[in-house]
Specification:
8-stranded parallel β-sheet; 559 residues; alpha/beta; globular
């Protein structure tokens, strides 16, 4: 096996990490589903983009009830994506190009097709097999009542009733997500041992990190109490199934596994918590290396809100000596081009609705500016596949192709997440836009309007979103003061964000009018796509240059 290099132990503190959603990245065999062969064929594209690592959403054997986050076997690749040997070759090929690999682990639950759960159903009530999960009798004389009234992250109940072999109704089992995703019982030693072995299995194959899905949810109060009444907030660490203090023992054990390997193998948590101190506790030196910072991603296009979010984030991370992470979207979230063009440009799952109008031209300008903003902030940067192309959310998918359980379990109120998972356009002027060989259509249909957004089209356009991302990531790598480090805010007036990173200044105009630039020695990059002459059409070093609305610029500080 080829293993990550050992000469850069802090690579993760300022890495640019590209999220690969395998079904939708590239199709190597023409069956309409992205696969590992497709990713291998496009590795030069990622190297040219300038990324340091790839994070793969689950590529394991799965019935795909939730896009692969219902894992049936962690030690095998789903046949739709390829084989374990192909995964090993992909990891090695990427490392040869200087790109590390991070894989996803989903410790809160497994698939209902996982051997453990199938054995639990077959073994029946009271069996050792059922102790790995949360099986409970129902309430009421016939057991018809659900054990608790917890609400699923996908809407509806968190309990599903089993059927006994004789056809009679049986016990209920807990699932914080879909019924096809039964929750594991993290008080059981088998669950601990299995997951530590899964980490070793993939570290042995050369992966540089593990992304931990729903990292704050896996430990439950064994009593499974009801939630407090509406309006009441549980004490810190006392929620029945969110952010319980016992979680930290799990991640300390995982950190010991990671640290036992040569080269820094990182743990990256998906931690959705409003309490920044509780969030930062997961990043103490003996737990995770980093965690996704969703705070900036959820903020509206507003200078005060974004600055406050950046300050909260940096302060929380500073307390534990961890680097922040910055992300504009992922496979669950409305794409920035669409989100920033809306009257309410914040993001919340609770308010996501079909038919919300957007101004894509405005959203694109803001998404370009946001790309430069986040790339200039201290820490590591995540880029979701297709954001570097400026792809919008696909909001008119035919109902019959929608697969996301959030849509079904909300009764159709939530449009679901498939709109940000539509396969990438690579080349050509009509679908499938080079997604795979031939003319076969991908698993989700691509809009015809994406002809102007293909990689091929954007490579020929120096003002494209792809050109902007490539330039920004190249500058980020070339400038020693960018990446990890400190930030100093500059006074640039209301509705403007301005800060220095060494001798690089970042200025973002979130107002509806041009604003003057601070004194500077030259323009490094502007988000409006016209390079160093793109700031109000003036050349470098000009006094009185103005920054247009919804535009960001990187400047060389005046000496």
């Amino acid at each position: 096996m080829v293993h990550p290099p050992t000469d850069d132990p802090t690579w993760w503190r300022d890495a640019v990490i590209y999220e690969v959603y395998p079904r939708s990245f590239a199709d190597g065999d023409g069956d309409g589903t992205g696969d590992l062969a497709g990713v291998r064929s496009r590795l030069p594209y990622l190297a040219d983009l300038g990324v340091d690592a790839m994070w793969f959403t689950p590529w394991y054997v799965s019935p795909l009830a939730d896009g692969g986050y219902d894992v049936a076997d962690y030690r095998a690749i789903d046949p739709a994506f390829g084989t374990l040997e192909e995964a090993e070759a992909l990891i090695a090929d990427a490392l040869a190009l200087g790109i590390r690999t991070i894989v996803d682990v989903v410790p809160n639950h497994v698939s209902d097709q996982h051997p453990w759960f199938r054995a639990a159903l077959a073994a029946g009530p009271g069996s050792p097999e059922r102790e790995r999960f949360w099986f409970r009798p129902g309430t009421g004389p016939d057991g018809d009542g659900i054990p608790t009234h917890w609400v699923s992250s996908f809407g509806g109940s968190t309990w599903t009733r089993t059927t006994d072999p004789d056809g009679t109704p049986g016990e209920w089992y807990l699932h914080l997500f879909a019924p096809q995703q039964p929750d594991l019982n993290w008080t059981h030693p088998d669950v601990w041992a299995e997951h530590e072995d899964v980490l070793r299995f993939w570290f042995d194959r050369g992966v540089a990190g593990i992304r931990i899905d729903s990292a704050a949810l896996l430990v439950k109060d064994p009593a499974l109490p009801e939630l407090p009444p509406a309006g009441s907030v549980p004490a810190a660490g006392a929620h029945p199934h969110v952010d319980r203090d016992e979680l930290h023992d799990v991640y300390r054990a995982w950190r010991k596994v990671a640290d036992s390997y040569a080269g820094t193998r990182v743990l990256v948590g998906e931690v959705w918590l409003e309490d920044t101190a509780r969030f930062a506790a997961y990043l103490r030196p003996d737990e995770m290396h980093t965690a996704f910072n969703f705070d900036v991603m959820t903020q509206p296009w507003d200078a005060a809100a974004l600055r406050a979010s950046v300050d909260r984030t940096l302060a929380a991370h500073r307390e534990v000596g961890a680097p922040a992470t910055w992300v504009l979207s992922n496979h669950d979230v409305t794409r920035p081009v669409t989100r920033y063009g809306r009257a309410d440009s914040a993001f919340s799952f609770a308010t996501k609705r079909a038919g919300t109008p957007t101004d894509l031209a405005l959203g694109t300008r803001r998404a370009r500016a946001a790309a430069l903003l986040t790339a200039a902030l201290p820490g590591s940067l995540y880029v979701y596949q297709g954001d570097e192309l400026g792809l919008p959310e696909v909001e008119d998918l035919p109902p019959e192709v929608v697969q996301d359980p959030m849509h079904e379990r909300s009764g159709g109120v939530d449009p679901g997440r498939d709109g940000c998972r539509v396969p990438l356009p690579w080349s050509g002027d009509r679908p499938p836009f080079g997604f795979g060989p031939g003319t076969g259509q991908p698993w989700l249909p691509q809009p015809a309007s994406w002809a102007a957004l293909t990689v091929e089209a954007q490579q020929a356009d120096p003002a494209s979103m792809l050109a902007l991302y490539r330039a920004a990531l190249a500058l980020r790598r070339a400038e020693p003061c960018l990446g990890d480090g400190e930030l100093r805010w500059l006074d640039a007036g209301p509705d403007v964000l301005a800060f220095s990173r060494g001798d690089v200044l970042c200025v973002v105009n979130l107002s509806d009018r041009p604003v003057p630039l601070p004194e500077h020695a030259g323009v490094l990059l502007a988000s409006d796509g016209t390079g160093s002459a793109g700031v109000a059409g003036v050349a470098d070093h000009a006094d009185g240059a103005a920054l247009p609305p919804d535009t960001a610029v990187w400047l060389r500080a005046a000496s």
